[in-house]
Amino acid sequence: MKKIITTAVVALSLAFTSCGDYLDINESPNSPNVGSLSPGLIFPGAEMALCNVYGDYLRITGGYFAEHYSQYYGTTNYMDYSQFRQSSVRCDRAYTQLSRNCLGNMATVREMAETNEEWGTYLAATVMRAIAYESMVDCWGEIPYSEALDMNNLSPKYDNGIDVYAGIIAEIDAALEKVSAGDPVCTNMLSPGSAADYWIAFANAIKLRMLMRESYALDVKSQIAALIAEDNFPAEDIAWQGFWGNSSSSQNPFYTEEFMAGQQKNLILNIALCATMQACDDPRIESFFEPNSSKGEYTGGVSGTNFSTTASYKANYWCRPAIKNNSPVYIITVAEIEFFKAEYEARYGSASAAEAHYKAAIEASYATAGVNGSIDTVLNVYPYDQSNYRKCIGIQKWVALSGVNNFEAYCELRRLGYPTFGSVSGSDIYNVVTDSYNPAALQPGELYTPITVNTKIGDNALIQRWPYPESSANRNQNVPEFPGESVPVFWAGK
Q1: Could you list the residue range(s) of the whole structural domain that residue 156 is in?
Q2: How do strand 446-447 and strand 420-421 relate by DSSP bridges?
Q3: What is the arithmetic mean of pLDDT over 75-97?
Q4: If you compute the radius of gyration of the chain from its CA atoms, what whole number of angstroms results?
Q5: When you count CB atoms within 10 A of the terminal residue's CB, does the N or C end of the chain come out lower?
Q6: Total count of domains within the chain
Q7: Mean predicted confidence (pLDDT) in 59-67
Q8: DSSP calls for 382-440
Q9: Angle, to 10 degrees, between the axis of helix 389-400 and the axis of helix 334-348?
Q10: DSSP type of residue 72
C-alpha cells in the first residue's frame, strides 16, 4: 500500500501542475514527459482529482441543497449554499479539477491503454471519465464534451446534457465490449490489485445510475431491463478507502476541509433530516451525525440563517456530521443500486419485487452505516407504497445517502421529487428576531423554504442547476446563455 500511495503522490504532482496541457507537458530534465510515463503513473493522480471534488465540494453543496446540512451558528462561510445559492466563482475550482485534472489526464490513460490493448485499464479510465462527466452534467446541465480536451480548440462547444449522457453510456458499452474479466488494471487507489471483473461490475452500476437518471426523459426501459437481467453489480459499496492517513495531505478530503484541527466549523444536521429520522427512531442517525455536546441529543438547525449567538443556542446545541480522517469517500453503494432496482420493478415489474428491493436497500444502508438490528422501526413509519413509489423510495434514498453521498441524494431529490416541500417555512421553525426555535412545526419527510432564500428560485423550490463556471464563461465564446437556477437539467423535473 505504501508503494501505491507514493505513486499516487507522484501522479498527483503531475495532475495538479500540468493544468490543461496534459498532452503538451513542458520538457524538463527534472520532470518526465508523456512519452516516458505509463498509465499506472498517471491514473492515481487523475483519480484523486475526481475523489477530492466528489468527496468534498460536491458533498458539501449537495448536503446543503438537499437539506441534510444547515449553517453552524455564528458562521457565514457557506451561507449562500444554505440559502440555495451557487455562484460561477464558487464552483469554478470544482469544474477545473474535473475537466483538466481528471478528464484531461484520464484521456491520456485511455490513449495509452488503447494503443497497448490494455483493456482493463481502458475500462477503468472510462468509468472514471463517466463519473466526472455525469457529475458535471448533473451540476451545469450543458458542458463541453464532443470538442472538449482539445488544446487546439480553446472554445469548445457546449453539448446538451442529454447528448453527453448518451455519449458516455456509449463509451462504457464500447469499453465493456473490449474487456475480459481477468484483464489486469493499472495501479489505482480504488481497487489495488483487482482485475477487470471489479471494474465491469462497477461500470454496470454507473451505467444503471445514468440510465435511471434519464429514464423519465427518455425511453431507456430495454437498456435498464438488460442490465438488471444480467445482474452483474458490485456486491460491496464502491468507495475510496483504506489508504487515508493522518497528515493534512492524506486525509479524507471532506474531513480536511471541515473538521481538521483549526478549520472553521460550518455544517450541522438539518432539521428536515433530523425530524425524518427521529420519527422512526432511525439508528443510522448515530452513524451519520454526532449528538450535541450539551445533552447528548440530536437537534437540527434551519437553512437560511447562521443562528444567533445568544445564550439560547450555542455551539453545544447543534450536531455535526460524523466523519473521521480515514472515512471512505463513497461513489456508489449497494443501497443505491437496490433502490434503483426497486424503482424499476415498481414501474415495469411487480409490486412484490419492488418491495423486496426497497427493504434490501434499507438493509444495505444499515450495513454501510455499521448499524445492527431490524429495519422494522423504519418500515413501520415509511413502508413501501406501490401507489406512490416515488415518495417512499425518494424519502428513504434521501435518508440513506445523507451520511455517505450527499451529492447523489441532491440529484435524486431533483429527479424523484421527494421529499417534497411542506406548508411550513424556515421562519416558522426558527425566529431570528426572538431567537425562538420550534422544531415540532416541521412534518417528518418534508423539506422547507430556507429563512432567507434565493429569490431567483423562490419558495418551495430547489436550486436545479448551477451557473456556468467562471473560467469557462469568461474564456469560452461558445458558452450558452444561462437559463437560470430554476430550470431543471434534462433529466429532472419530470
Answers
A1: 2-247+326-423+461-475
A2: parallel
A3: 94
A4: 22
A5: N
A6: 1
A7: 98
A8: S---GGGHHHHHHHHHHHHTTTT-HHHHHHHHHHH--SEE-S--HHHHEETTTTEE-GG
A9: 180
A10: P
* CATH at 69: 1.25.40.390
At what angle are helices 389-400 and 271-278 packed, to 10 degrees?
Answer: 110
**Cβ distance 450 to 303 under 8 Å?**
yes
d(CA 127, CA 296): 42
Note the pLDDT tens digit of each residue in 189-231. Answer: 999 999 999 999 999 999 999 999 999 999 999 999 999 999 9
- Residue 361 parent element (H or E): helix 351-369
Residue 137 within any structural domain of the chain: yes
pLDDT at 248: 77
Q: Which residues pair with 240 in a beta bridge?
A: 329
Mean residue pLDDT across the chain: 91
d(Cα 362, Cα 370) in Å, to the nearest integer?
Answer: 12
What are the residues whose beta carbons fall under 8 Å from the beta carbon of 342, sequence distance 6 or more? 354, 355, 356, 357, 358, 360, 361, 384, 389, 393
Q: In whole angstroms, give the CA distance from residue 411 to residue 389.
A: 17
pLDDT at 6: 35
Cell, residue 39: 498509465
Task: Report which DSSP code applies to 465.
Answer: -
Rounded Cα distance, 328 and 30, in Å: 35
Helix, strand, coil percent content, the chain, rounded in steps of 5: 50, 5, 45
Pairwise CA distance, residues 161 & 140, whole Å: 9
Identify the pLDDT of residue 312.
63
| Residue 432 confidence (pLDDT) | 87
Residue 431 lies in a domain: no
d(CA 218, CA 418): 20
